[in-house]
Design brief:
The chain is an alpha/beta fold.
Length: about 325
């Protein structure tokens, strides 16, 4: 079965890595999807962007199986409705825009109801879509991980890592404030992620790090290959204010690296039993994050338990082949219907 994939135009831009782009690339490669990039200012398209998307869908053969990234689909309901009877449209939702923006809900609801099926990338996303829109024909295909060697770490506790685009939604400001509260402990923190997504926030973050005298301990290194970073890390700190799944947490656990994260949205689903009760902290709470870090530095038995839990979670994580098979199964079911 041939699957056409309608994707944002920048999913392979090395300067703008994201979990959604990574997911799209891994799945499309495994499905040998015929990709149809949709350049535009998604999720805020102008009339020209919508007209080009309409022409793109009009050029696909009648009855074609079409995977549409939710970044494109959720803000183009009229276009999807115009082609819903002719194409087998399956929308891939990485995040529900209506979750944080009630004004986006009417358009997103129309777009998702126009689809033959909807795929959510996490159990949390599925639950939230049901709450928001009472959808049926809703499936889950969670992100996979690549097999990787168990990380050696530093042999201690102080090599901290944060992998995320630099932005307020990822909680870097909270991380910096928390690290300032444990400045008496021996640690360094590498923050790997693009600084171009929110330049004003990034500039303010650099200024705050300097003001706190932490410039020699917190390194903002930009986008980097992750393998050597995970291999050297003792703990991944992921203070996000909202994740529908948390691919970087799963990637750390796939290497046996413990994760300190927040209770935001789908993050607990990704971490699973690798987080003992009380270990995850509320999003936006620098004091709670600092308290957890202080426990990590001061309690060797806790560190051993978290490392053992990370290794146990590592054994349960599935690969990208499983993700692609789940997506393909949705199309086969949809075409059969």
């Amino acid at each position: 079965m041939t699957v056409f994939a309608v994707l944002p135009g920048d999913i392979d831009d090395p300067g703008s890595p994201s979990g959604g782009n990574r997911y799209d690339r891994e799945v499309c490669d495994r499905l040998a999807a015929v990709e149809r990039p949709a350049p535009g200012a998604w999720p805020h398209p102008d009339a020209g962007d919508l007209a080009r998307l309409d022409a793109l869908l009009a050029g696909l053969p009648h009855g074609a199986a079409v995977l549409v990234d939710g970044l494109v689909a959720s803000c183009a309901p009229a276009v999807l409705e115009a082609h819903a009877a002719r194409l087998r449209l399956v929308v891939l939702v990485h995040m529900p825009f209506g979750d944080d923006d009630p004004a986006a809900r009417p358009d997103e609801a129309r777009a998702l109801r126009a689809a033959s099926a909807v795929i959510a990338t996490s159990g949390w996303t599925r639950r939230r879509l049901i709450e928001l829109y009472a959808l049926s024909r809703l499936h889950v295909a969670t992100p996979g991980v690549h097999q990787a060697p168990v990380a050696a770490g530093s042999g201690g506790a102080g090599a901290l890592l944060c992998v995320a685009v630099i932005g307020r939604h990822k909680g870097h400001d909270v991380l910096v404030e928390a690290l300032a509260r444990v400045a008496d402990r021996d640690w360094t923190c590498v923050c790997a992620g693009s600084m171009d997504r929110d330049p004003a926030f990034a500039r303010g973050l650099v200024a705050r790090i300097d003001a706190l005298g932490l410039g020699d301990r917190i390194s903002l290194v930009g986008p980097r290959p992750v393998e050597p970073l995970y291999a050297a890390a003792d703990l991944l700190v992921h203070p996000s204010r909202g994740e529908t799944y948390g691919m970087v947490a799963a990637e750390a656990l796939a290497r046996g690296v413990p994760v300190l994260a927040t209770t935001a949205k789908g993050l607990p689903d990704a971490i699973g039993a690798a987080a003992p009760p009380g270990w995850l902290v509320p999003p936006g709470d620098a004091d709670a994050l600092a308290g957890a870090l202080r426990r990590w530095f001061g309690d060797a038995a806790l560190r051993d338990r978290l490392r053992a839990a990370a290794l146990a979670r590592r054994a349960t994580l599935t690969g990208w082949d499983d993700t692609a098979r789940a997506v393909e199964a949705v199309f086969r079911h949809t075409v059969a219907d």
